[in-house]
Amino acid sequence: MSRRLWTRSILVLAVIIMTSCLADAEAGSFIKVPKKKYKGPGTTANLKSIIIGRCYHYMSLYPAIGMKDCSRIWQELTEAVFRKDPCNITEEDYKKLGEVAAQTIPCDKSLLWSRTNQLVHRYTKATEDFMTLEDTFLGFLFNGLTWCGKPVTPGMNYNSCPAWNECSNNSLLSFWKIASAMFAQTSCGIVNVMLNGSADGAIARKESILRTVEIPRMNPDKVSEVRLWVIDDIHGQDKNSCNSESLLELQQYIEEHNLNYSCIDNYKPVQALQCVENPDHHACNQCSRP
Ligand code: APR
């Protein structure tokens, strides 16, 4: 091999080695670990301020609850989820948070619900005779908010969080499960449940919190009766009522948990609220009522 050819070969080899080294260096410094993207929205902006603000607001609305340590509540939330995998948060992780936010629920005041999220809360706002989970201290603090951690800085994921059913131990589902369990467990006397008589399918989904968490956690020694209210949408159809198959099945499920059962179709006080909102509807005309 001539000297010139030899030098050229060495040069080509050097260029190849350098290019490959540069590529490696680039890979090391520029290729980013792909971010995990969950299906739900990320942690609510200003979460801490919202929770602490709601905490003081609740105490001013309901002084009977006594003094709660609002900073501690925030601290217990972060202990539960901060820097953690949001698909690996259990009900146990929220146990301390549940303890610091504990509240006594007066007997006969609990109002559970399934598939009536909007109506039930319009109703409790209007009457204040009953309390849903979202009207309790713990539910009020977190209702409508999203939060989840991530193992790297800043410790909370503001881009995305697991959606309701994305993984079984996700930070939101586990929280609402333990909050619902505590609410049902501390309920006493008559426990009312608002259901949707106009919705398609089962009156309460098999996987609903009502069936899977709340009914099993009620204490038959403290709960005298589970009273179902089957409410039809004022503009909707009457798809389910107390004697429908779906209701009879739910009755059986409630009784299997040693709880007494009763059922009311279109409970009048709720119908009255629907009529306030729809005064011209024919169902609201006293004269046309049977
Ligand atoms: N995807 C997204 N969100 C869901 C899903 C889902 N698959 N399932 C439930 N949710 C959320 C929604 O925010 C919905 O409004 O839970 C809410 C209630 O679902 P429902 O089937 O209407 O009712 P249920 O599961 O029985 O939960 C209501 O639990 O929160 C407690 O005390 C409360 O008694 C009430 C019960």
From TrEMBL:
GO biological process, one term: positive regulation of B cell proliferation
Keywords: Disulfide bond, Glycoprotein, Hydrolase, Membrane, NAD, NADP, Signal, Signal-anchor, Transferase, Transmembrane, Transmembrane helix
Residue ranges crossing the lipid bilayer per the database entry: none
Domain of life: Eukaryota
Compartment(s) of residence: Membrane
Signal peptide extent: 1-25
EC number in record: 2.4.99.20, 3.2.2.6
Catalytic activity: NAD(+) + H2O = ADP-D-ribose + nicotinamide + H(+)
Molecular function GO terms recorded: NAD+ nucleosidase activity, cyclic ADP-ribose generating; phosphorus-oxygen lyase activity; transferase activity
Subunit structure: Homodimer.
Protein name, as recorded: ADP-ribosyl cyclase/cyclic ADP-ribose hydrolase 1
